Amino acid sequence: GSKNIGFVGLGNMGGHMASNLIKAGHKLHVFDISKPACDNLKAKGATVYTKTSELAKNSDFVITMLPNNDIVDASYEEMTADGVNKNTFFIDSSTIDPTLVKSLQKRISAKGARFIDAPVSGGVPGAEQATLTFMVGGTEAEYNTVKAVLECMGKRITHCGDYGMGQAAKLANNMMLAISMIGVSEAMNLAMRLGLNPNTFAEIINSSTGRCWASELYNPVPGVTPTAPANRDYAGGFSTDLITKDLGLASGVATSSNTPIPMGALAHQIYRNLKSKGLGNKDFSIVYDYMKNDKN
Ligand code: NAD
């Protein structure tokens, strides 16, 4: 049935996710520090709040979709400082450190409410089309409670294990995505420098062993995948800032678990370098452009 759902963080992802909850018939209670982001949801029928503690008290579920650890931490502090409605179920879908997930879960359950991690994959198109993959960390019972709500925004809702395991899956996946995007960029650039036509080479990869999401659906070379950010000067899509953040989180959890990630660590440095060149707001497939321009 129709639920009261709070949504905090109405950006590239959250704006579409909240809209899909409205389309599914839920009552939305929203907050973002950006007024245009709030106005957009208000026009679709959501109630806009100025205090997230009030938003949370009026909600059966609260979903947070915020940029990073510090902002998520501060937002939960503000939302729960003066007590919680024990029936409110908090779901964080941002990409953050699994350690922070565990500490938030302890803090919120100590106040009597529930909290789980449910980060997503599928990008802005997945958010828009409600085809996201949700990686849920929590108990089986909690997973079963949130599943119907998440299904309004995604098509695959997977229970990954205990608190933080959704983030563990997300960080490992995104580390691999960064490595494969750099790999596709390197290979496309090499093939083109050797004289191959990019479309011919992409066709070869995509019916060969090099095939992956970055080569097939998000090719970094302009003119290869019509819908990819490469065709609009790497605008929109998944930013270099965000992939760099995710690689930093992956490095942190790899260090704390004594896990070798030689390629992930290198990918992190490459993306940090792109960021320092002022390309943080460009789509992460811009790594191809960077290789193309490297002609020493
Ligand atoms: P975004 O920057 O577009 O949106 C973040 C929103 O949070 C903005 O509207 C901003 O105004 C708002 N915000 C910032 N501080 C706030 C605060 N204190 N209170 C309320 N609102 C605040 O980012 P996004 O692309 O929507 O990503 C959100 C999260 O989802 C990130 O953790 C990201 O890593 C993750 N993610 C992004 C993608 C993607 O393809 N963009 C895919 C999967 C996961």
Report on this structure:
The protein is of the alpha/beta class and 296 residues long. The chain has 2 domains: 160 residues, Rossmann fold; 125 residues, N-(1-d-carboxylethyl)-l-norvaline Dehydrogenase, domain 2 (Orthogonal Bundle). 51% of the residues lie in helices and 14% in strands. The strands form 2 sheets. The protein has a 6-stranded parallel β-sheet. Helix 8 crosses helix 11 and helix 11 runs antiparallel to helix 12. The longest helix is centred in the middle third of the chain and has 29 residues. The protein is globular, with a radius of gyration of 20 Å. The model has no long low-confidence stretch (mean pLDDT 97). The site of nicotinamide-adenine-dinucleotide has 25 residues, from helix 4, strand 7 and helix 6.
